[in-house]
Write a structure and sequence with these properties.
Blueprint lengths: L1 H33 L3 H14 L4 H13 L3 H14 L4 H13 L3 H14 L5 H12 L8 H12 L7 H13 L3 H14 L4 H12 L6 H14 L4 H11 L4 H13 L5 H13 L3 H15 L6 H19 L3 H21 L7 H11 L6 H14 L3 H17 L3 H15 L7 H13 L3 H14 L4 H14 L9 H13 L6 H19 L3 H14 L4 H12 L4
Helix pairs in contact: 1-2, 1-3, 2-3, 3-4, 3-5, 4-5, 5-6, 5-7, 7-8, 7-9, 8-9, 9-10, 9-11, 10-11, 11-12, 13-14, 14-15, 15-16, 15-17, 16-17, 17-18, 19-20, 19-21, 20-21, 21-22, 22-23, 23-24, 24-25, 25-26, 26-27, 27-28, 28-29
């Protein structure tokens, strides 16, 4: 009996030990996910699932690792395989819903989520977290952020709750629909549970970074705090690599090295090594490195490699055209388009971002006949980007290219969106208003031109150009001068021009205004004396102008009718 008791106790100890080991292994895999080390996480969960095919957690997190590796098909296959044998697994049903959101199957996904919550009686923090994460994840465009907030808040209300991961996911969900205040509060609540939870500090930084460069001191401080708390937290290094990519290649490369040293050596790593060569202006070398990466990857290379090659070929094309090598320039341009087409074909639509659409538009605009598609691409870029300056940059870049090609109607539509975006703060510049109004003027849409030139004069009342353009546009509408539409604007041109006749372009603009009032005073107002005064002012600026002389002589000899 005593021996049996010892045996029983030994059995219990073994079971407890096995359970602890299993829990540690799950936690080990989750830690890899926390650090975005998806390849390592995948290896852990594959082993756990092989040891116990009914391990629900291992199956769920294996799918999450595959999603992190941007292999949605593999995640779907893993979930389908597990559900075939375990159809009522709440956690894996939530994972399957995540995949279906990425496929754009929102109704199917919602059904999976509700079933998962129902099977777990709405009392599983892990299931609610999985549902919330799938919907609130910034990279899952089809996810419902409001639904994510609802389910994650429900998780926090379960007795015994103390999981910082749930609160960070809640913050991400708030951030997804631009509620930065509640996002930051959620991250702070996570830090109250675990002050060393670096992910929460990092995510706070991301909130402030989306608010623009004015918040740079704050988000940079938060990124440095993240590194101080956990130097192994790789995502912060990737953000800093991207941040300095355009402005400081040396710093960008430094952070890339730190990211590589704290990440798995997967296809993404190879891509970033090629990418830094692009940032250094080594375009041919970046293409060569990208080709090495695709060859090493076999049948399924990292899709971003094709996008990188497209940008690199585009830059080589620009360089060739600059030195008058049009043959080589066109060859590179064709390769740029070919690689971008390949990128878009291979990339998961969920992963195609604003910069991708804008970049493709900058290449496609160089191929005549694609104007409508180019405008559509830019509009997609604008819709996806959250930063005003990025939106404006996309629009102005392509609008300028279209204007250079004399596609003034397309250019006007894009420039008008710049003004629209900047209108709430009235942060549009005189150049924004000029470009918009003038392109409408060139396609004879004078009413639209008047609209933007009027805004120009309201914001810049001391700039003669705005009144000059407004006068010109109104003169095209009121060609007989009978309504005198151009008179107020041209009168302002005279007022400003005569106050500083030596200002840039003052004389030709004054001349236009004086000529207008010669005709307007004589033909409409029937005021011969005023007409002659304007004729004399015009001749003082252009004494050799035979047209003005002839008109003055006519006015002198004839009485207005």
């Amino acid at each position: 009996m005593k021996s049996t008791s010892k045996l029983g106790m030994m059995m219990i100890a073994v079971m407890l030990f096995a359970g602890t080991a299993m829990a540690q292994s799950i936690e080990e895999g989750k830690k890899f996910l926390y650090y975005d080390r998806y390849q390592s996480a995948k290896g852990v969960f594959e082993k756990l699932l092989a040891a116990n095919p009914k391990n629900e957690q291992a199956a769920y997190f294996l799918g999450q690792a595959e999603i992190g590796l941007e292999n949605t098909a593999a995640a779907k296959a893993a979930y389908q395989s597990f559900l075939a044998a375990n159809p009522n697994s709440p956690l894996v049903l939530a994972g399957m819903g995540h995949v279906e959101l990425m496929e754009g199957k929102t109704q199917d996904a919602r059904s999976r989520f509700e079933t998962a919550i129902s099977l777990s009686k709405g009392k599983s923090i892990e299931v609610l977290n999985a549902v919330g994460y799938a919907n609130g994840n910034y990279d899952v465009k089809a996810g419902d952020a409001a639904y994510a907030v609802e389910k994650l808040k429900q998780a926090t209300e379960i007795k015994g709750f103390k999981d910082p991961e749930v609160l960070v996911n809640l913050g991400d969900a708030y951030r997804k629909f631009a509620d930065g205040g509640n996002a930051v509060q959620s991250y702070d609540r996570a830090l109250a549970i675990d002050p060393n939870y670096a992910r929460a500090i990092y995510r706070k930084g991301r909130v402030y970074q989306t608010q623009g460069v004015s918040q740079e001191p704050l988000y940079m401080d938060l990124y440095n705090q993240t590194i101080a708390k956990d130097p192994k937290y790789a995502p912060v290094y990737m953000t800093l690599y991207s941040y300095y990519y355009e402005s400081n290649v040396g710093k960008s490369a430094e952070y890339l090295d730190k990211w590589l040293n704290n990440s798995d050596d997967d296809p993404k790593a190879c891509y970033y090594r090629a990418s830094i060569k692009f940032a250094q202006g080594m375009f041919a070398e970046s293409i060569g490195k990208a080709d090495e990466c695709t060859a090493a990857a076999g049948a399924n290379p990292y899709p971003n490699l094709f996008g990188l090659k497209a940008f690199a070929f585009n830059r080589l094309s620009d360089q060739s055209f600059k030195v008058k090598d049009s043959t080589k320039g066109q060859e590179y341009l064709e390769k740029a388009k070919e690689n971008f087409d390949e990128y878009l074909k291979r990339q998961n639509p969920e992963k195609i971002g604003a910069g991708d659409y804008s970049g493709y538009a900058s290449i496609l605009v160089k191929f005549p006949g694609n104007e409508d598609k180019v405008v559509d691409l830019v509009n997609k870029a604008v819709a996806l980007d959250s930063l005003e300056e990025n939106k404006v940059s996309y629009l102005k870049s392509i609008a300028g290219s279209l204007a250079n090609q004399k596609k003034f109607d397309k250019a006007a539509s894009l420039y008008s969106k710049v003004v629209e975006i900047r209108s709430p703060k009235k942060s549009y510049s005189n150049l924004d208003l000029y470009n918009t109004g003038y392109n409408y003027y060139l396609i004879s849409q004078y009413d639209s031109a008047v609209k933007y030139f009027t805004i120009f004069t309201e914001k810049y009342p001391k700039d003669m150009l705005g009144f000059y353009l407004l006068g010109n546009a109104n003169a095209q509408i009121d060609t007989t001068m009978s309504a005198g539409l151009a008179a107020p604007a041209y009168q302002k041109v005279i007022e400003l021009g005569e106050a500083d006749v030596n200002a840039a372009n003052a004389k030709p603009r004054l001349l236009t205004a004086y000529k207008y009032f010669m005709g307007y005073e004589y033909n409409v107002k029937k005021n011969k004396e005023e007409a002659l005064k304007n004729a004399d002012k015009a001749l003082a600026l252009a004494p050799e102008d035979q047209g003005i002389l002839a008109n003055k002589q006519f006015i002198e000899k004839n009485t207005p009718r």
